[in-house]
Amino acid sequence: MLDAALDRDTEGDLLLGDMGEGIPFKPGSFDGCISISAVQWLCNANKKSDIPAKRLYCFFSSLYSVLVRGARAVLQLYPENSEQLELITTQAIKAGFTGGVVVDYPNSAKAKKFYLCLFSGPSTFLPQGLNEVTDEEEAKGSTFTTERVRYKIAKRGLVRKSREWVLEKKNRCRRQGREVRPDTKYTGRNRKPRF
């Protein structure tokens, strides 16, 4: 990318560096920071001397110093597992940040996104993740029983291909973050035979 920028004679200066070795800017230089899919690469050890926890702490402590007091850093990441996410958040808090993890579309496997929202200075409210849940669905409470419900009995409630089944399936797809056509009066109707 740097070679392409040099070929195009872009305005401004170019900087090549490893963010695991720190950020080379003066303290208090930036009002905010946005990172997309970069932080999780600090968890990989490319050399024998690379220790992921130290590289993460060096990055977060230098990021904390280059941000002004009260600034935000929002880092989108795709952790491999929960241990990696825990390591990243622990090192960020150890460096002085406050905040936490926000998850968009937590019910979906493909559309799920993790955002590490960090604040340098006094902690403010943590934003809510995107979730397409309506007020009616939030109002429903959970009922717990000690007995096991067999799969066939539990599924007997909705007849397959009925209007209720189609609406439930569309709501499930919306919660997973997929694009779904809006509900109309024709939703769940049978098509008439053509021939």
Structure write-up:
- With 195 residues, the protein is an alpha+beta fold.
- It folds into two domains: 2-119, Rossmann fold (3-Layer(aba) Sandwich); 132-195, no CATH class.
- Helices cover 29% and strands 16% of the residues.
- The protein has helices at residues 2-7, 52-66, 82-94, 135-139, 151-155, 163-175, and strands at 30-36, 67-77, 98-104, 113-119.
- Strands 1-2-4-3 form a four-stranded mixed β-sheet.
- A hairpin with an 8-residue loop joins strand 3 (98-104) and strand 4 (113-119).
Q: Which descriptors would you attach to this protein?
A:
195 residues; Rossmann fold; 4-stranded mixed beta sheet; S-adenosyl-L-methionine; transferase; BUD23 rRNA methyltransferase and ribosome maturation factor
Class per helix and strand makeup: alpha+beta
What about the largest sheet? 4 strands, mixed
Number of domains: 2
Rg calc: 24 Å
- DSSP helical segment count: 6
CATH H-level superfamily of the largest domain: Vaccinia Virus protein VP39
CATH-derived architecture of the largest domain: 3-Layer(aba) Sandwich
Share of residues in helices: 25-40%
Question: What is the CATH top level name of the largest domain?
Answer: Alpha Beta
Q: Kindly, what is the distance between the CA atoms of the first and last residues, rounded to a whole number of angstroms?
A: 59 Å
Please specify the SSE layout and strand pairing.
Blueprint: H1 2-7, E1 30-36, H2 52-66, E2 67-77, H3 82-94, E3 98-104, E4 113-119, H4 135-139, H5 151-155, H6 163-175
Parallel strand pairs: 1-2
Antiparallel strand pairs: 2-4, 3-4
InterPro entries: Bud23-like, Bud23_C, SAM-dependent_MTases_sf
Protein name: BUD23 rRNA methyltransferase and ribosome maturation factor
GO molecular function: rRNA (guanine) methyltransferase activity
